[in-house]
Design brief:
minor pseudopilin epsh fold, 2 domains, 3 helices, 43% helix
Length: 191
């Protein structure tokens, strides 16, 4: 209001302009909706004009075909990779078990001040100290190279020495060799 009590035209227009923007947008939307048949469903995409619901719903045939092709490719490639990982895990498991049994036999020989024998039955895939209680996975090939190979034995003596041996383990995923040093009795995995 001016000091004379009259409303200035400029101020009322500027105020109406500010509040009229939102009213103007709402009026425009109402006019657009009134012109369109009532059977159409509209959604408002941000500040853009209204767009048809049917134009935004669902996926195209090409999108579905690409998705199915990628899913089929994943199903074809993943299982062989997982199977090979399982073979490697079985090989490492049997290798660790064998190394621990060899080290245990050496420790028992030194602690007990007596010879200890680790026996192998390659036909039955068994080995162990005193009795054959450890098994080797059926998918793993085993070779035993020792002076007592015909007996299938590795002997550990009270002074820590041994008859010596090289034990080979192999399957589809790779191979490993375990060497038992004849002089020191140390057990190590060699490539």
């Amino acid at each position: 209001m001016s000091p004379t009590g009259k409303i200035s035209h400029n101020k009322s227009l500027s105020n109406a302009g500010r509040s009229g923007r939102s009213l103007g947008f709402a009026r425009t939307l109402a006019r657009v909706a009134a012109r369109r048949p009532a059977t159409h469903h509209f959604i408002f995409c941000g500040f853009a004009p209204p767009c048809r619901w049917a134009a935004r719903a669902g996926f195209t045939l090409i999108e579905l075909m690409v998705t199915l092709a990628l899913a089929g490719l994943m199903l074809a490639l993943v299982p062989p990779l997982l199977d090979k990982g399982g073979d490697r895990a079985r090989l490492l498991h049997d290798q660790r078990d064998l190394v621990s049994q060899l080290r245990l036999a050496r420790s028992e020989a030194i602690a007990g001040d007596r010879p200890v024998t680790l026996r192998f039955d390659l036909a039955k895939r068994l080995y162990g100290i005193e009795r054959l209680d450890q098994s080797i996975d059926s998918g793993i090939a085993v070779t035993l190279d020792t002076p007592l190979a015909e007996l299938g034995e590795i002997r550990f003596f009270a002074d820590g020495s041994t008859s010596g041996a090289v034990i080979g383990l192999a399957n589809r995923s790779g191979s490993a060799r375990v060497r038992v040093d004849w002089l020191t009795g140390s057990v190590e995995v060699v490539p």
